[in-house]
Amino acid sequence: MVQKAKILLVDDRPENLLALEAILSALDQTLVRASSGEEALKALLTDDFAVILLDVQMPGMDGFETAAHIKRRERTRDIPIIFLTAINHGPHHTFRGYAAGAVDYISKPFDPWVLRAKVSVFVELYMKNCQLREQAALLRLQLENGGHSGRTGAVEPQESAGLLAELSARLAAVEEQAEALSKQLDESADAAAVATAAHLERKLTGLRRALDALEPGAGSATGPVPSQG
Asked: Sites of the modification 4-aspartylphosphate (predicted)?
């Protein structure tokens, strides 16, 4: 069963949160509410999120200040932030949103379909990254078993070949999906989404090289896995 991605909705007005939930419910992901910047930061301490929808105008800690805190934390700095605002003070105000680390800046009232489409892109990228981490974990497990097996200190050749084939097939499926997503983004997407997709492709390339290095005749099967960061 595929685990759902979490989307953080931050707005001090309950009616706005309700509207966002209605718009994004079709994505069939887990929607988490926060009615203030402080509440959002607390949620980010324990959960991983695919994307954050952050209202700019909030009493106390506003959206810009909340985003600054999010970007300062190592755990949360890479989470995409989409700013939502009911006011438009021109290019300077928009620039402040991007300077605070937002990947997009949307003025209310917005087109529900457009917002849902933008959020779905970041959810899909998040899911691909989760799949990639799973493949990397399996690969690391294979390498560790090669040096810590309770039988002879090494995995049997037949068992190793079978696991490598399974890993290669799973990785190929993720590579195919990532390629299709990149083509879709090339046609119509903002620069931030394209850059995130390119980062994912670089991770996939590094993992594929590591997997190829484990093939018989490709060198030692106990060497370090290239960094996926």
From this structure: 55
Give strand pairing partners of 53: 9, 82
**What are the two backbone dihedrals, phi and then psi, of residue 82, each rounded to the nearest 5 degrees?**
-110, 115
Spatial neighbors of 77 by CB under 8 A, at least 6 apart, are 70, 71, 101
Phi-psi group of 95: left, alpha or beta (phi > 0 → left; psi -120 to 50 → alpha; rest → beta): alpha
Question: CB under 8 Å, gap of 24 or more: what pairs does 38-44 form?
Answer: 39/10, 40/8, 40/10, 40/66, 40/70, 41/66, 41/69, 41/70, 43/8, 44/8, 44/70, 44/73, 44/75, 44/76, 44/79
**Alpha-carbon span 113 to 122, nearest angstrom:** 15
**Calculated CA dihedral for residues 73, 74, 75, 78, nearest 10 degrees:** 100
Distance from C-alpha of 157 to C-alpha of 212, rounded to nearest angstrom = 16
- Residue labelled with tokens 């903002």: 190
CA atoms within 13 A on the CB side of 19: 16
Q: d(Cα 138, Cα 145) in Å, to the nearest integer?
A: 11
- Residue in the block written with tokens 């959002």: 40
Query: Minimal CA–CA distance to 8: which of 60, 47, 64?
Result: 47
Q: What is the pLDDT of residues 46-95, one digit of tens each?
A: 999 999 999 988 998 988 899 999 999 988 988 999 988 876 655 656 66
